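Typical record is below.
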Amino acid sequence: MRLSVIVPIYNEVATIALLVERVRAVKVDKEIVLVDDCSTDGTRDVLPGLAGDDAVVVYHTHNQGKGAAIRTGLAQASGEYVIVQDADLEYNPEDYARLLQPLLEGSADAVYGSRFLGRVRRMSYTQWLGNRALTVLTNALYGTSLTDMETCYKVMPVSIARSLRLRANRFDFEPEVTAKLLKRGLRIVELPIDYHAREQREGKKISWRDGLPALWCLLKYRFVD
């Protein structure tokens, strides 16, 4: 069993080295696929020093968005399973082994690390409300009972991820993946994770405006593929 950890990166010079250190410390057989989405803050100067036998770095020639970076990483993945790891230290790589377990046992087709089943620190009310609203809409449209549709930690076999024919370029990646998994009747299991939110002043890039494309994505994929 090998896990491909896809890290989409845009202007994370302050955190990327520590993030890779934390991922490497996890006792799981893995590869790290670092995808730089044309950073301009010095991140690109740091990345060559992070490459190695267990990590590859891929560079976009122009900024395309998180979803596009994830698709690039997925094309590079050589593991049996895949997880996306944000570079901003909000999510804890120590959760990997526990999230993989239902997949290894055959009791799930995908595993979501739910922030709202676990420990959430510093999430603003606006972020909380937006996440909850999109999750409630997902449940209403697709007849499920998720607690955290927008979580970054979605683990699944690489073969399933590639079969979804993903198109999202930006933060609408999360609802697209969820919609397509649910429309196929695949089993999503949620497990609690540890989450430490960062604020806009610390470099957080997603905002309430990103909720509108996510909303449209959920509605669109309810009726089309």
Summary: DSSP finds eight helices and seven strands in the chain. The mean pLDDT is 93.
